[in-house]
């Protein structure tokens, strides 16, 4: 059951503080709470619950506020609850009317908050905030374009044949919190999990049949002989993989025999049953790669606890292959929109046209220029941009011209402006934890990524308010100084 919160009672002047005093209106958490339209966004969250059945759920403001605090401070769930318990400003952000020296909820509720606030709901929340920010910034200038540019950027809802604004797009990988996978380590972990499953199934038949022989000590020894070597040749690794595949095949056969003799899969925990299904697919993939002497296969599993994670080939200097979600982000007037999340190694250039159409739906017109890297400049995208009078940044296809001075100058300007979205990924990875997603489930990982993008937009919003306050202060100071003179 969900009960909507009375937002009229949540003014910071009325927030009760037992130690005396009042909350400051210029505090960052107070300004952040006032910047989010809680009432407009609450309906999406309330639709997940029954209107008259069940215990009352935590409010939308408490759920979203707690997740924002976690991502903004880049801390754990337990530390988030402690920070809220100790700080009255954080309690005001999550919707409490008075200071309470007790945890507002158990840290395990953070998992439920991430499940309830799906990426779809967070995308709608981010869309509302970005639209409001673009409407507010209308006519105030744009940090994503030169000051002398005639490309007016803000938001509109009507149709327009004139192209306006600049759209920056790029893709990156949000790595998952997993160890660097190798085939041998993956097979060894699979074998150990199968041995635990055999122990659980055999307990129900103990005394009726002899326990299957798993040769776990010998298998562990065979694994360590290869894993502990500093330099291992290809033949040695292939021989070790063959042995682990044989042990896994024997263990899977023992599990099938135990089930035929009367053991039940109901004895397994949900995690063990899920691991059993994943390990069977891991064995099939590794067996096929071993037989065909190949290192690639479709939908390759690299982690048993997170089977949705795929190897993403990026070709970067720091890491040629990354393991996580591939995110496609667009930047408009300094605000970021998460266009797509994919766990497969998709070509982001194929999504350019869809992203431009979303820009048109959002703004009411096509962009005047799209700043992207060379990967996006294929023939289909160039033809599409030419048909809609859009300039796609980058060098022309084919042989370069002899006197291409104008294009090179424009290319340098576009490259310098496009550094903004590259820097945004750097801020997200170094400041907000986008470099290592700690959640394990696919849905909650996507929620964490969406929250980081949302928090970055809220930070942009707060910086705008701070600059506006400084402008008003200096204008007032100048007026006072002129009156004194």
Q: What does this protein look like?
A:
By secondary structure, the protein is α/β, with parallel strands linked by helices. It is built from 15 helices and six strands. Strands 1, 2, 3, 4, 5 and 6 form a six-stranded mixed sheet that branches. The protein is flat and about 75 Å long.
The H-and-E topology, N to C, reads as HHHHHHHEHHHHEEEHEHEHH
Roughly what fraction of the amino acids lie in strands? 5-15%
Q: Could you list the spans in which at least 5 consecutive residues all have pLDDT below 50?
A: 146-159, 478-485
Q: So how many helices? A: 15
Portion of residues within helices:
40-55%
Number of strands: 6
Structural class: alpha/beta
Main beta-sheet annotation:
6 strands, mixed
> Mean pLDDT, as a whole number?
85
**Computed CA radius of gyration, to the nearest angstrom:** 28 Å
First CA to last CA: what distance? 64 Å
Structural shape: flat
Describe the structure in brief:
With 485 residues, the chain is of the alpha/beta class.
Question: Secondary-structure blueprint of this entry?
Answer:
Elements lengths: L27 H8 L2 H9 L13 H14 L3 H10 L1 H6 L15 H8 L2 H18 L29 E10 L7 H21 L12 H12 L6 H27 L9 H23 L17 E4 L7 E12 L2 E8 L9 H12 L5 E3 L7 H9 L3 E2 L12 H26 L11 H43 L1
Parallel strand pairs: 1-5, 5-6
Antiparallel strand pairs: 1-3, 2-3, 3-4
Helix pairs in contact: 1-15, 3-4, 3-15, 7-15, 8-9, 8-10, 8-11, 9-10, 10-11
């Amino acid at each position: 059951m969900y009960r909507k919160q009375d937002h009229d009672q949540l003014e910071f002047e009325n927030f009760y503080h037992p130690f005396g005093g009042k909350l400051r209106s210029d505090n960052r958490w107070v300004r952040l709470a006032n910047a989010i339209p809680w009432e407009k966004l609450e309906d999406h969250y309330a639709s997940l619950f029954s209107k008259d059945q069940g215990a009352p759920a935590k409010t939308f403001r408490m759920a979203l506020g707690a997740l924002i605090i976690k991502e903004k401070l880049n801390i754990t769930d337990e530390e988030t609850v402690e920070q809220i318990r100790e700080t009255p400003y954080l309690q005001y952000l999550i919707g409490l009317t008075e200071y309470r020296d007790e945890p507002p909820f158990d840290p395990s509720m953070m998992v439920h908050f991430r499940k309830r606030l799906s990426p779809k709901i967070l995308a709608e929340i981010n869309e509302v905030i970005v639209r409001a920010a673009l409407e507010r910034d209308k006519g105030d200038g744009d940090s994503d374009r030169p000051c002398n540019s005639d490309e007016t950027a803000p938001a509109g809802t009507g149709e327009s044949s004139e192209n306006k604004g600049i759209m920056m797009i790029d893709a990156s990988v949000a790595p998952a919190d997993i160890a660097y996978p190798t085939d041998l380590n993956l097979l060894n972990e699979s074998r150990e999990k199968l041995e635990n499953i055999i122990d659980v199934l055999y307990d129900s038949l103990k005394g009726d049949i002899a326990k299957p022989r798993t040769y776990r000590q010998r298998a562990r020894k065979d694994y360590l002989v290869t894993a502990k070597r500093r330099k291992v040749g290809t033949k040695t690794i292939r021989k070790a993989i063959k042995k682990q595949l044989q042990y896994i095949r024997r263990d899977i056969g023992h599990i099938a025999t135990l089930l035929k003799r009367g053991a039940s899969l109901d004895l397994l925990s949900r995690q063990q049953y899920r691991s059993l299904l994943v390990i069977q697919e891991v064995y099939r993939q590794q067996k096929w790669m071993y037989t065909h002497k190949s290192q690639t296969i479709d939908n390759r599993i690299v982690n048993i606890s997170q089977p949705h994670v795929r190897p993403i080939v990026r070709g970067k200097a720091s890491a040629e292959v990354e393991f996580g979600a591939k995110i496609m982000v667009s930047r408009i007037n300094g605000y970021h929109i998460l266009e797509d999340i994919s766990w497969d190694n998709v070509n982001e250039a194929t999504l350019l046209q869809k992203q431009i159409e979303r820009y048109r739906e959002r703004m009411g017109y096509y962009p005047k220029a799209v700043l992207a890297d060379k990967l996006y400049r294929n023939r289909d995208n160039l033809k599409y941009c030419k048909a809609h009078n859009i300039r796609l940044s980058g060098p022309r296809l084919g042989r370069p011209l002899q006197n291409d001075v104008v294009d090179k100058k424009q290319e340098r300007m576009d490259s310098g402006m496009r550094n903004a979205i590259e820097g945004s990924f750097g801020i997200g990875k170094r400041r907000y934890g986008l470099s290592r997603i700690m959640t394990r489930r696919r849905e909650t990982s996507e929620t964490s990524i969406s929250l980081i993008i949302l928090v970055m937009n809220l930070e942009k919003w707060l910086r705008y308010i701070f600059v506006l306050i400084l402008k008003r202060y200096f204008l007032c100071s100048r007026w006072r100084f002129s009156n004194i003179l």
